[in-house]
Each structure stands twice: as C-alpha cells, then as structure tokens.
Design a protein that fits this description.
- This protein is an alpha+beta fold and 89 residues long.
- It is built from 2 helices and 2 strands, in the order E-E-H-H.
- The radius of gyration is 26 Å and the shape is elongated.
Amino acid sequence: MSTIRARFDGKVFVPVDPVQLPTDRLVELEVRDAEELPRGSAQMLRQAMRQAPHVPPEDVEALEQAIAAGRAAERPGGVFDDLADGEEP
C-alpha cells in the first residue's frame, strides 16, 4: 500500500508527485484533507519534508548577524604557520 498525494482540479485528481502505476490500473482512493493529518504521523512528516520551510526575514537577519559576530579575524598565512616544525596543534 502506498500514499499518493493529489490535487482535485474540479474534475479529476492530479498527482502532486510522479506515480509508478501501470496505465488503466484500478485503485481505491481514500480522500482526506492533507491539513488534517494526525500530528506526529508518518504522513505529516512526509508532507513537512516535501514543503519548503518558512523562515521569517528577521530570523534570517538574526542568523546572519550571529554568524558575522562569531567570525574570527582574518590573518595572513595558514592557521598552523606559527607552529614549530614537528609540533602538533
């Protein structure tokens, strides 16, 4: 058994993702609103993974500021250039 997500266009169900079924295959569809999936269910998890995340612009800005604040100052040369020969970091 598999789950096929589809949209109803007013006449027929149109699959959201490609469907691997032979032509003229008779199947039974259980119609359920995608928004009504049980919290924590495998179906809800799959739906969430297929959707792009919604990230508010202020969260993006806060993340960029945190990254910028955590950057080390640039320095010429390599990170380990000041180690003596044979010395381990």
